[in-house]
Amino acid sequence: MSMSRISTLFAVNRVNLITSQISRTPIQRIPVRNLSISKTLLERFYTPKHEWVNVEGNVGTVGVSKYAADALGDVVYAQLPEPGDDIELGGEVGALESVKAASEVYSPVSGKILEKNDQVEDGPALINQSPEGEGWLYKLELTNPDEVLKLMKTEDYEKYLGTLADD
Description:
The chain is of the alpha+beta class. It is about 30% helix and about 30% strand. The strands form two sheets. The protein has a seven-stranded antiparallel sheet. A three-stranded antiparallel sheet has the order 4-6-7.
């Protein structure tokens, strides 16, 4: 038997051994979730009065924009809606007071309050430090998710702010 024939037989037997081992290895199934996410439900929306809502599923997180926080100055008091309260689109839901002024907070959408940010009530300066992050005001279950379609998307809000700077 020639050396090349022996090499070929050895290679074939090795492939058969590897194939045999692979076929005996149990296949692990990785759980997969089917997600259907609408782009609309992952965006932040703004009102002309500088409130924002970030929608995830049927829950909206509401706060005030950086522009509003800067305009107010150092926030020293925050009155927020209570969990369980039903609120209407455009309805007054709370107030923010600063060393400069007091301002009402209006709801950008309708819904039932699920949670308020106790950290903001305990330390309202959080609104100035992180108005569009940790300084959120309340979360609500949306009663009419389509209301967000009437609000400004981030790009539109930035353009809107540009018109205010011209005044």
